[in-house]
Design goal:
The structure is a single chain. It is built from 14 helices and 11 strands. By secondary structure, it is of the alpha/beta class. The chain has 2 domains: about 5-205 and about 290-310, TIM Barrel (Alpha-Beta Barrel), CATH 3.20.20.70; about 220-285, no CATH class. The strands form 2 sheets. The chain has an 8-stranded parallel sheet. It has a 3-stranded antiparallel sheet with strand order 7-11-10, with no helix packed on it. Helix 5 links the parallel strand 4 and strand 5 (about 115-120). It is globular. The mean pLDDT is about 95.
């Protein structure tokens, strides 16, 4: 792959336009450093870290890699001001923001010399992100794992629509775990890709081994986007999910849904490995994930498949 003219590679000073998503309970310094060392962009997921834990992961990532890496920050985070101060103090130069307005902190980050990408799930919010002056937009389709948009717009349709309406560099996310998927996203107008679920099932992922094995076992139809009344989230259909479904069937209130969800449900499932009572957040692409591998091997396989698919397409004639 010739990345010398790629917008995302130039923006973040990386070799390959592959971003590892900053997922809660999954994306610690080991995974971020492994991806960055291979030439992609690793992200530490701040959404599941107390401020002192985040600082420790940043320091360890700097020791493990001399390549660019970034932090993913959900803008609803309760200790947001402290998190932002730590990022600035530790000299992090790339931030991906999500779950909030890009207007709030984009200029402030940029004034500190920090590149900002913002995650959206619709054309409307992609345009708002461009107006806010972000350096890149991540457009995430309905297929994605974890917290998602309510519109249920698929990546295959979202990417070309966003591409048509913004001039900002565009990163595709949701349902991408292979080289063919990466090539398809870029054919639709993306400048790079953000990959989450595939890196959950990596050796460096901080997810519990029980959860990683559950991802490998997952087939098509084993996940569902639910809890839209609270925060939409795509989950593996386990016993906890069934309890959510039962509440919907009897038309339970938002308060009842919130009480069932409680606190720490994602940590219980993804980090502690409780496959029955935990939230198991993963994308639909889990049906194509069959093995837990080192992150660098995952990237190698994506790049090889990308190149092979390119060559195959050159042979097609009409």
């Amino acid at each position: 792959m010739d990345s010398s003219e790629n917008k995302i590679c130039k923006l973040f000073n990386i070799k390959y336009p592959i971003i590892q998503a900053g997922m809660v309970w999954v994306s610690g310094y080991k995974l971020a450093a492994a991806v960055s060392n291979k030439g992609g962009l690793g992200l530490i997921g701040a959404g599941s870290m107390y401020p002192d834990v985040l600082r420790a992961h940043i320091k360890k990532c700097k020791l493990a890699s001399n390549k660019p890496f970034g932090i993913n920050i959900p803008l609803f985070y309760p200790d947001l001001e402290e998190i932002i101060q730590i990022i600035i103090e530790e000299g992090v130069r790339i931030v991906f923001t999500s779950a909030g307005s890009p207007k709030t902190y984009t200029k402030y980050f940029q004034d500190q010399g920090i590149k900002v990408a913002h995650v959206v799930s619709s054309v409307k919010f992609a345009q708002k992100s461009m107006e806010a002056g972000v350096d890149a937009v991540v457009a995430e389709g309905f297929e994605a794992g974890g917290h998602n948009g309510r519109e249920e717009t698929t990546t295959f349709t979202l990417i070309p629509m966003v591409n048509e309406n913004i001039e900002t560099p565009l990163i595709a996310a949701g349902g991408i775990a292979t080289g063919r998927g990466m090539l398809a996203a870029m054919a639709l107008g993306a400048d790079g890709v953000q990959i989450g679920s595939r890196f959950v099932a990596s050796e460096e992922s901080s997810a519990h081994s029980n959860f990683k094995q559950e991802v490998v076992r997952a087939k098509d139809g084993d996940t569902h986007l639910t809890l839209k009344e609270l925060t939409p989230v795509r989950l593996i259909k386990n016993e906890f999910y069934q309890r959510v479904l039962n509440l919907y069937q009897r038309k339970a209130s938002v308060d009842e849904l919130s009480a069932l969800l409680g606190r720490g449900r994602a940590k219980k499932g993804m980090f502690e490995g409780d496959l029955k009572e935990g939230e198991l957040e993963i994308g639909q692409i889990a049906g194509l994930i069959h093995e837990i591998k080192p992150a660098q091997q995952i990237i190698d396989e994506i790049l090889d498949e990308f190149s092979n698919a390119q060559e195959e397409l050159k042979k097609i004639r009409f």
